[in-house]
Amino acid sequence: EVQLVESGGGLVQPGGSLRLSCATSGFTFSSYWMSWVRQAPGKGLEWVANIKEDGSEKYYVDSVKGRFTISRDNAMNSLYLQMNSVRAEDTALYYCARGRRDYWGQGTLVTVSS
Amino acid sequence: DIVMTQTPLSSPVTLGQPASISCRSSQSLVHSDGNTYLSWLQQRPGQPPRLLIYKISNRFSGVPDRFSGSGAGTDFTLKISRVEAEDVGVYYCMQATQFPVTFGGGTKVEIK
Q1: pLDDT tens-digit series, residues B2-56
Q2: If I label B40, which of A57, A98, B23, B59 is the partner at 20 to 30 A Cα–Cα?
Q3: Cis peptide before B100, with omega less than 30 degrees from 0?
Q4: Are A44 and B99 a contacting pair at CB < 8 A?
Q5: What is the DSSP letter of B112?
Q6: pLDDT (tens digit per residue) in A30-39
Q7: SS3 for chain A, per residue?
Q8: What residues 27-46 of chain B have any CB closer than 8 A to a CB of chain A?
Q9: Euclidean distance between CA atoms A40 and A80, whole angstroms
Q10: pLDDT of residue B87
């Protein structure tokens, strides 16, 4: 069974940092692109970042470029999102998703507030 | 960026009746590899999104056959042949032909 479990969310002050993790199981992690997608409270879905199977290519939505970094550890079957210089508008439920977003985790909530 | 526009915003439906959701993209979603990376996702209340349809019309594993997708180029449709109570939620179209990946604003399906 494919499973994705996000962690690392919480309350962070504007300008602060947070590192999200996504632990996966039930599939060959190193064979898939992976994504982060977020959803602000009561809003729709926004793609955040993608990373290629071997980590050699990374893509970001403009609003997080230079502040967020997506990475992965294929030996640990894990995906990460390093969030720096966070802003109030980064407040959202952050989901990790496999490949072309065929499986999703339950999400981890990030709240940016002073 | 490719803008995805969904209509209607809300769709009140009688149980057992059909429902239809439209999605229009601001440019063609045909990829250089010949595929069209248009997907439909369902998000039930309090749940993460779930993939229903990929590449316009392919049902994902475990998705009931009352869900179907169609379209081409810039115009796409999701149909539910007979709405059941478990279909209540918000439906999103999503394009992955070009970065950034973008989503429609969502259509809320509710029971009358």
Answers
A1: 999 999 999 999 999 999 999 999 999 999 999 999 999 999 999 999 999 999 9
A2: A57
A3: yes
A4: no
A5: -
A6: 999 999 999 9
A7: CCEEEEECCEEECCCCCEEEEEEEECCCHHHCCEEEEEECCCCCEEEEEEECCCCCCEEECHHHCCCEEEEEECCCCEEEEEECCCCHHHCEEEEEEECCCCCECCCEEEEECC
A8: 37, 39, 41, 43
A9: 19
A10: 97
Chain A positions in Cβ-Cβ contact with residue B54 (cut-off 8 Å): 100, 102
User: Quick one: residue B55, left, alpha or beta (phi over 0 = left, psi -120 to 50 = alpha)?
Assistant: left
Is B76 in contact with B70 (CB distance < 8 Å)? Answer: yes
* Of residues B43, B7, B112, the one with CA closest to residue A43: B43
Give the per-residue pLDDT at B2. Answer: 97
Residue B112 CA to residue B105 CA, distance in Å, equals 22
Q: Quickly tell me which residue has 């429609």 as its tokens.
A: B104
User: Does B41 contact A106 at a Cβ distance shorter than 8 Å?
Assistant: no
Give the 3-state secondary structure of residue B85. Answer: helix
* Of residues B57, B54, B46, B61, the one with CA closest to residue B101: B54
pLDDT at A100: 86
The percentage of chain B sitting over the pLDDT mark of 90, rounded to a whole number, equals 100
Task: Find where tokens 């999503």 sit.
Answer: B94
